[in-house]
């Protein structure tokens, strides 16, 4: 079968810091996929579409008919760190790794098959947030000694460099976000393994468990950072409601209380992450998305 990368992946890799490097990986991707399938002795069924923004996922089957999913990501996406996180969770709250023997050869992840078309976004909002909180409780575990994941302080320090160059229209919010980042990373905080990119769309229906998370961008730090991305889930719906700023603040408080997280730290990280995402969207020319993110940050 043809392994054409979905357009969503092509667009996203075109916005990375080194698009030429990622274009080279995309060009080699059909051959990489064929070789990865052969190494693992699995048969391709179809490419998952629209797929993710950082990887190609091929739905496959073993010769005995057992379903699985093969995920291929460029080296810059650090699939080795994703593998380490998934192995650390061991299938508790997260998708299970079926075979990691060939990972060092091609960076591929052979994972249990979930239902990619059924995420928490298919549930009513209140039920989705309840299930999301239950999933996060399973993921937040001690990282173990000598772990190789970066910390929240390290990741946000890198992101802060880009925020210092924010365009004039985002300058005031960027300054506030930078002050928040400095304050929140200036004092010791929790050290737990975090998903790093957790939201409703990253939690899929499974057979082994009702809901399992996928696609971590793992790091180590405090729970408030991980929960912050979930606060702005279904952002267009939030912006469209009459509740506006008061609704956003209530959501922060509700999620913080549900998971025993400090409200002020959650609000702070929610602002920082929204402004950082909005600044990246501006740089990529995704103006509508940027405006939504910056408006949301201003509410808080």
TrEMBL record:
Any one GO MF annotation of this record: kinase activity
The UniProt keyword set, sorted, is: Kinase, Transferase
Q: Which domain of life is it from?
A: Bacteria
Q: Does the keyword Kinase apply?
A: yes
Cross-referenced InterPro entries, in alphabetical order? Kinase-like_dom_sf, NH2Glyco/OHUrea_AB-resist_kin
Pfam families found in the cross-reference section? APH_6_hur
Alphabetical list of SUPFAM superfamilies matching this protein: Protein kinase-like (PK-like)
Identification of the protein by name: Kinase
What organism does the record attribute this protein to?
Streptomyces cirratus
């Amino acid at each position: 079968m043809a392994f054409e990368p979905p357009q969503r992946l092509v667009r996203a890799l075109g916005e990375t810091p080194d698009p030429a490097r990622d274009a080279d990986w995309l060009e080699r991707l059909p051959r990489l996929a064929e070789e990865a399938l052969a190494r693992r002795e699995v048969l391709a069924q179809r490419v998952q579409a629209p797929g993710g923004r950082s990887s190609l996922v091929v739905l496959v089957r073993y010769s005995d008919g057992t379903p699985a999913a093969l995920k291929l990501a460029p080296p810059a996406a650090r699939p080795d760190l994703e593998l380490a996180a998934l192995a650390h969770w061991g299938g508790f709250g997260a998708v299970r790794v079926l075979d990691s023997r060939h990972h060092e050869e091609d960076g591929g992840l052979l994972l249990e098959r979930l239902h990619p078309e059924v995420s928490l976004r298919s549930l009513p909002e209140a039920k989705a947030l309840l299930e999301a909180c239950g999933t996060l409780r399973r993921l937040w575990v001690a990282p173990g000694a000598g772990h190789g994941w970066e910390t929240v302080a390290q990741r946000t320090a890198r992101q802060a460099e880009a925020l210092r160059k924010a365009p004039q229209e985002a300058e005031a919010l960027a300054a506030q976000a930078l002050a928040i980042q400095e304050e929140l990373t200036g004092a010791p905080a929790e050290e737990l393994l975090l998903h790093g990119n957790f939201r409703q769309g990253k939690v899929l229906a499974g057979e082994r468990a009702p809901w399992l998370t996928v696609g971590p961008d793992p790091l180590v730090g405090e729970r408030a950072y991980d929960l912050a991305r979930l606060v702005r889930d279904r952002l267009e719906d939030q912006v469209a409601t009459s509740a506006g700023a008061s609704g956003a603040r209530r959501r922060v408080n509700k999620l913080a209380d549900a998971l025993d997280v400090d409200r002020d730290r959650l609000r702070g990280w929610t602002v920082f992450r929204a402004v950082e995402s909005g600044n990246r969207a501006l740089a990529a020319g995704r103006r509508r998305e940027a405006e939504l993110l910056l408006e949301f940050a201003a509410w808080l």
